[in-house]
Amino acid sequence: MNENENSFESLRRLLAFKNRETPPPGYFDSFSSNVLGRIRAGESSAPEGFSAGASWLVKVLQAFEFKPAFAGTFALGLCMVLVFGIVYAERPDAVSQSLLTQSAQITAPTAMTGTPDFTQQAETSGLIATTNPVLNLDSVATLFNQPNQLAQQVSFTVPGN
Amino acid sequence: MTMIMAEPVERTELEPPAPEQESELVRRARKGDLEAYDDLVKRYQERIYATIYHMTSNHEDANDLAQESFIKAFQALKSFKGGSSFYTWLYRIAVNKTINFLKQRKNRTHMSLNDIDFNAEHDPDLMALISDKTPRRAAALTELQKKLNEALLKLSEPHRLVVVLHDVQGQSHEEIAEIMNCNIGTVRSRLFYARQQMQAELADYLK
To answer: If DSSP codes are grouped into helix, strand and coil, which group holds residue B201?
Structure first.
């Protein structure tokens, strides 16, 4: 390393010239008072409620600045949430959507007969969207103990009679 | 019996202040004592300003960034755990702020250079470098200053920082490693590479 130091000796002497560059005379006389003035101004301009409420935010931002690993972890977490959201949104819910339209068509005659459209109510309340087996009319009709007008009478013979 | 009065020892510019005093000032400043913080600012203002100035080659930018660094340090004092000296911690804030600023500024470089110290014209080392270039010393010095700053600005920020801290400000490899949060080997290799680059850029002055 000493060899390197020697080979760069003239460069070092040249670089020492940078120390000859000085700010305007008296510049440092007012420097600290300017800094303190800005600190005081910052303290007085920040409303108390704001400083108290935003203190956690300031701490988080400071953590980002001083701990790059924290910022990286936070960014990674955000990315994972985003990816999860995209994957979840692209799940084959389209099937249930098509089934919903089918159920709407099937229940349309019930509206014409004057009975309330429970399918629509259930759909708006989110009951059908994911769990309801929409082709099973019984489950819809029996939600509020209403008679299922589409149900057909079944006649059968009991063995032995 | 004769009493020998100890002569007051003049503190050199780079000598750090007594640690006890500094820790006491930091303790008071943490409690919001602006008078104590004023003392801390006065201790380090020249070195912090100089580092930023040599990194940016712009007085106005250096002024803003130095002030903002001290303000930021005051606001973050509560998070200062004392794992390193206040001086190193403050340097880190200033250096991070400056590097972030330079990254945002990218290629929009505008030099606003400070005046050269009058005594520079009487520096024999310096005069030896430029005396045979031109008889007009002042013009030659200004030209040299410009070339030097241009060569520095061509370096990447980490390389420039190592050169500034070591070759301009005289800090040790260990101190620089602590400020830059890297190991000494990295500091040395960066310094070697940066010097090579600088040597190539300033070849005319180094023959």
So the answer is: helix
Chain A residues closer than 8 Å to B119 by CB: 20
Tally of CA atoms within 13 A in the half-sphere of A110 that contains its CB: 20
Alpha-carbon torsion (A59, B40, B30, B34), positive or negative? negative
Contact: A4, B46; criterion CB under 8 Å: no
Please check whether residue A2 touches B, CB under 8 A: no
pLDDT of residue A88: 84
- Contact between A118 and A127 under an 8 Å Cβ cutoff? The reply is no
Map out the domains of chain B with their CATH numbers. Answer: 18-110 (1.10.1740.10)
User: What is residue A36's predicted lDDT score, i.e. its pLDDT?
Assistant: 94
**How much is the ipTM here?**
0.76
Give residues with Cβ within 8 angstroms of B133, minimum separation 6: B140
pLDDT of A41 higher than 70: yes
Q: Does B123 sit within 8 Å of A1, measured CB to CB?
A: no
Domain ranges of chain A: 9-89, 94-141
Q: What does residue B4 show for φ and ψ, rounded to 5 degrees?
A: -100, 115
Q: Nearest by CB to B168, which of A15, A35, A62?
A: A15
pLDDT band at A133 (very low <50, low <70, confident <90, very high): low
Tokens for B111? Answer: 């030099």
Residue of A nearest to B197 (CA): A11
Predicted pLDDT of residue B9: 40
Chain A within 8 Å of B125 (Cβ-Cβ)? yes
Q: B51: burial class by Cβ within 10 Å (0-12, 13-18, 19+)?
A: buried
